[in-house]
Amino acid sequence: MFRFIIFCVLIINIRAEEHSRVVELDEGPVVGEKYWNGDYFEFYGVPYATAPSGRDKFKAPLPVEPRKTPLHASAKNIICQQVYYTGDEDEEIMLYGEEDCLKMNIMVPTVANENNLVPVLVYIHSGAFAGGNGNMMRTPYLSRHDVIIITFNYRIGAIGFACLGTEEIPGNAGLKDQVAALRWINKNIKKFGGDPTKVTVAGFSVGATMAELLALSKTTDGLIDKIILESGSALSPFAINRDPISTVKNVAISLGYKDNGNLRELNEFFLNAPVANITAKSLNFFLTNSTFGFAPCIENVFENNEPFLTESPLDILSKNSHDISVLTGFANMEGLSRVSKFEEWSEMMNKDFNPFLPADLVFKDNKLRDDFINEIKEYYFKNKEVSPDNLQGYVDYFSDSMFKYSILKSAKLHAAKSKRSVYLYEFSYIGGLNMRHNYADRILGASHRDQTAYILDFFSSTQRVDDMITRDRLTFMWTDFVKYEDPTAYESSLIDIKWLKYSNEQPNYLSVNDRLEMKRDLLANSYEFWNKVYEKHYWNPSSPEKRN
């Protein structure tokens, strides 16, 4: 009888393990449940840090608070405070989210354990530095490839990216959250069955920008093995705020602040401003100069305050060697993400093109600026007014100036300095998961971040065979890069091509469309068009001047 009881207990424990898994952490155990139709366990809403509050709300995150009881990790709706975006400027502003939001989601394959460590892929969400969350996408198509997948929240908007260069508002709180997440992963992921020496950080749009910034920051030394960048770069015009004090000041003035040029008074006003009010002013998806308002900044250095970034990304990329492998690329028509503003912006461009120049260009005088504007009008619009007749030029202009040039510049610098592999791609596949736009009758192409819709699941669906093939190809290549530093490590009927490494001597790239094809010299002419002006007129960012 006793043996029978023991047998029943063992069977119950085995079956429990089939449907749930307990991981013992220093702050307390967490319990994950098995995905209903997959070979992995889901841990949602696992705390990796604690968001500071009150007058410390702009500072670096605090450690996780210990728990006395097991955490059943099933909270799928935790997000950081943000504005609910509808796209309708006349609609009432709706705020949602919570202050205590620094949680991550961990998808663990059943094969992963402390005796069988698997690589880790960490995805950083997008949202123009002011929206989005770690729950905005699901990862089942990646999770089936025997790698641990992690998504997470970080502080966004003014709370995450306000930067005054003061001790109270030093900047980059959202990025410091991400560093805390990577440090937590480094310390704890082995207990889930993850290899802390094989962590790949990926991101899409501004998430890609931050993934590359993380790789360039000294705060992440030893935490990142590889990066995957989808439609974003640390060199993008929107990557670094070049005048962060003005950004904060403009928000403060909109909330009633009387500006008298005193930084300490501005600092004090922002410290005391209600979180809901400054969050409501944080969302800027469509600024004409290819930025989003709040963004990362170059920090001042203070005692007892670990800065995230003290040099410009271009300086770091140009002078330092990087022991990191990179997979990077973009969609062939990134500028389609700007066609919703075409009717309004085309009229504005015809009156004054200056506001549409990228924010990271600065000219010594108006003549130099106007000469370049004339070059743009000739190159993209054939010296004609911006109109529906040259909509393609409008799309190409934003594709190149806002995304493609900076991404390719980053690839070139990594290839010149890195001791490891660099892979470059262009995504031009058009399928059921691509972004919809109003001009599909005349322009066909892949829009900003369209490739990510086939890698992650943004709660959309498709029944097209070609879409599923594209999804399988991308998820296989991405996870093979994570595992082997080679996205085409194994040839198959699905992936019947060898993805050649990119170098400045052999500028290979993978064209991803209905089929895979190796090509060379991606964006060669447009790159030279932009590079000649950036060589002369790039606005290299610096930290805010320290003032009393």
From TrEMBL:
The gene is LOC113517749. Residues 1-16 form the signal peptide. Keywords: Glycoprotein, Hydrolase, Serine esterase, Signal. Gene3D superfamilies: alpha/beta hydrolase. Belongs to the type-B carboxylesterase/lipase family. One of its GO terms (molecular function) is carboxylic ester hydrolase activity. It comes from Galleria mellonella. This is Esterase FE4-like. InterPro entries: AB_hydrolase_fold (IPR029058), CarbesteraseB (IPR002018). Residues 20-530 form the Carboxylesterase type B domain.
